[in-house]
Amino acid sequence: MTWILLIIFILAVLFVVGMYWAFDTAFIRKKHRLFTVDTGPLAEYKDVLNKGLNFVNSLESERVYIKSFDGLSLAASYYNNNSDTTILLFHGYRSDGKFDFACAVKYYLEMGLNILIVDQRANGESEGILTTFGIKERRDVVSWAQFINEKYAPQNLFLSGVSMGATTVLMASNLDLPKNVRGIIADCGFTSATDIIKKVAKQAFKINATPIIPILNLICKILGNFSLYETTTVKALSESDIPVFFIHGRCDGFVPCEMSEISYRAARAEKHICIVDNADHGLSFLVDSDNIKKQILEFVNQHC
């Protein structure tokens, strides 16, 4: 009996340690960027990405700050283009906006837009320990949109995100956004926190995460004050009247293209989707640049 109890105790300890490791791996702030230009699909575009990043870093900008709904100091860079239309850019999981939008910023400036590049919570200069896969971040979208309206008073706002940033703005679509939010541009977003956790666990760790997600969710509630089940893009889009332009690479190896297609079908507002056949994760803008630029321009002009 003693040996049985000891084995049960050891298994219980290992389980608790494993669950905390999963929580730490997925949610707690890390210093390194998830994707780099030195390896993986981005390596092919290293030169053009570095050129774009150098361009962004050469621009004059105003560093701005807000307080989040839960008291965090959040940071962003504002690029004034003397326009009546501003686009707010939200980066992906463990990344930064200058990197994720390195090759888009110049085009948005050429379109005549002001730009706000946001440091999402727990990234960059923004405070926070936890990344919540868009669940808390979606409320930051509302705060940033309200801030831009109060400080700069543009006539039109557009929200745009890549990867988790796309999920963030899509999940924000049914919240109390300002009335001058004219549209959302969502590039390769996932449908929910639970969906992407299950996908990554299976792909990277060969684990079926379905049975452990309820326990992981309990840890999120206790340590992070949020629920993995709180919302999804499907729920938000089914309750939103904001037009959406979806972009996704057919060959996305990180967020399956089907997730944007699911979100697209769920959206009740005016919607458009562009699937780029040969593009991996976040690379649609580079792989099919002329077409994507044309469709973004048409979308923005249509809704201004």
Q: Any overview of this molecule?
A:
Strand 5, helix 6 (about 165-170) and strand 6 form a beta-alpha-beta unit. The chain is about 45% helix and about 15% strand. With about 300 residues, it is α/β, with parallel strands linked by helices. The protein has a single domain, classed as 3-Layer(aba) Sandwich (Rossmann fold), CATH 3.40.50.
Which helices and strands appear, and what pairs or packs with what?
Elements: H1 2-27, H2 46-58, E1 62-67, E2 73-79, E3 85-90, H3 97-100, H4 105-110, E4 114-118, H5 137-152, E5 156-162, H6 164-171, E6 181-187, H7 193-205, H8 213-224, H9 233-238, E7 244-249, H10 257-266, E8 271-276, H11 284-287, H12 289-303
Parallel strand pairs: 3-4, 3-5, 5-6, 6-7, 7-8
Antiparallel strand pairs: 1-2, 2-4
Helix pairs in contact: 1-8
- Relative helix content: 40-55%
In total, the number of domains comes to 1
Which CATH class?
Answer: Alpha Beta
Helix-strand pattern:
HHEEEHHEHEHEHHHEHEHH
Rg from alpha-carbon coordinates: 20 Å
**Gap between N and C termini:** 73 Å
CATH topology, by name, is Rossmann fold
Poorly predicted runs: none
Instruction: Quote the beta fraction.
Output: 15-25%
Q: Tell me the major beta sheet.
A: 8 strands, mixed
Tell me, what's the shape?
globular
What's the pLDDT, averaged over the residues?
A: 95
CATH architecture group name: 3-Layer(aba) Sandwich
Strand order of the largest sheet: 1-2-4-3-5-6-7-8
Helical stretch count? 12
Instruction: Say which CATH homologous superfamily is assigned.
Output: Alpha/Beta hydrolase fold, catalytic domain
Q: Count of DSSP E strands?
A: 8
Structural class, by secondary structure, is: alpha/beta
